[in-house]
Amino acid sequence: MKVAVIDFPGPNGVKDIEAVCHMFGHDSEVFGPKDTSFKDADSLIIPGGYSYGDVIRPSALSKTCQVCGAISRFAKSGKPLLGIGNGFQLLCELGLLPGVLIHNPTLDFSSGIVGVEVQKCKGNTLSSLSDKCLNLPIACYYGQYYIDKRTTRILAKNEQVAMRYSARFGVNVSGDNFLGSVGNIAAVFNEAKNVLGMMVHPERVIGLNQDTKDGYLFFKVWFDLRNNND
After folding, report:
1. Which CATH class is domain 2-229?
2. What residues have CB less than 8 Å from 109, skipping those under 6 apart?
């Protein structure tokens, strides 16, 4: 599989994603903000860890880059597209996912290992992880996911909620939803189930000598999405 990886100014997640691709035997190619296509890529990942434009609003500047046109076209192609952290924020800014990410209710930067419970969503690769919990890192200031009541009902009807925060499994978090996200939502799909945005960072826990390696479990099934869609 050929994986396109977006590199916006100031990221710290690109190398992690490249390492993940290498671990699973996939080729990766990095594209910048001025690129207009991803050639023959089979999958696209927008890593987190960049703050480009956060002083205005997360991804407010990123969404004006030329590459965003290519991102929108890729999403419409039906191929798998994953946005992590700031990547999730960008997908919301582009209208490829519903909702918006606003500042945490504490007005502080939040980080640590949190528990997320994978939801039952028909028609996507995460089905094999349904009802399981993954302990994954989070690191954000704008991590509170907000949607209105109408959109909440639509996501429930279409089974678009991919993950919810759960203190039953979290390592360092007290309370079910320390970020204040509507419905404890940690990750969502688009209606077609090929675009996924998530606040947690699975790419940071895939190796040895870590408290959790649940990121490995996530990517193991995520990379199966292309085969499921063929």
Report:
1. alpha beta
2. 139, 140, 141
